[in-house]
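Figure S7 source data.
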Amino acid sequence: MRFSDGRLTPIWDKVRAGARLTAAEGLILLETEDLLGVGRMADHAKRRREADRVYFVINRHVTPTNLCVLSCTFCGFARKKGEAGAYEHSIEDMVAMVKDGVREVHIVGGHHPEWPFEYYERMIEAIHHAHPEVQIKAFTAAEIDYFWRRWKIEPKEALARLKAVGLRSMPGGGAEIFSSRLARLLKYTGKADPERWCEIHGIAHALGIPTNATMLYGHVETLAERVDHLVRLREQQDASGGFLTFVPLAYQVATTKLVPRQTPPADSLKTIATSRLMLDNFPHVEAYWVTLGEETASIALNFGADDVNGTLEDERIQHLSGAETPAGVAREQLLRMIHDAGKIAVERDALYNVVQVWN
Ligand code: SF4
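Tokens for the predicted iron/sulfur cluster complex:
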């Protein structure tokens, strides 16, 4: 392989040999102008794991409330009580949202000022009871940490109780960017810091609850902060081993306007490719079509991503933050995204069991 940036040649030698990349090499991958060079290396790493397979799931997002005690600067989703657009769903409403054919329900919401932990427990129990065949992926590490801050329920107890009533896996949100500088600047010091976020994922893994991980990029973070985030995730995966998927989330500018415009597709592609190359111990890297747009997500399937998430039906967090993609898509649209990239579409469940291969 020839590169326009000579710094990529020794990195390619390591990628081919399956050797671990350093933080300094990760920074080169994000800095270089040779987007196609980075993409081809990531595609090689992806193919070695999954050949031409790309996964998707028929899923449903349930967002119990947008009331939140915090006010993170990048968030266009949260509301205070009485504010226009604030909402709270009843458990009955949430049970009714899950329709036949859904394999995974994804539950994430604001840090509600009053709902007791038992409300969340009843929520999972009711959904599981009504839809025992649906796998429930619920509550970020930030929410689990909030149960401790608000109700003094230790994460180990919270997760064990939630697992007992039907929780199967955890989403990867709340990580934002692992940087104390950004936590202060963007006012998310009130939520789980990197050590706590990783600790809670480690606890989940020890309890047999697989989880995902995210990174919010494309705002005021530095490239070095992105690399540091990836290295910390890789270390946590070495320690506890239960991460399934890494999901890079492109910041949506809309109302919060930390930067004048959304990060360009080339930056997203390079970030996805770098993630695939740095996270050598993560089974999957996702091209989340909601924040990327369907076209960029499709292209990302040749830049190291092997998953496009799912149908979602009613995505709210990114859309209240300004995402212009639809709030959900049909299976046919996901198949088109994957087939347009020249890949084999594999329908999965929340735990990556294969449901059907769509050639
Ligand atoms: S990002 Fe999460 S914790 Fe922060 S304000 Fe929004 S909903 Fe609340």
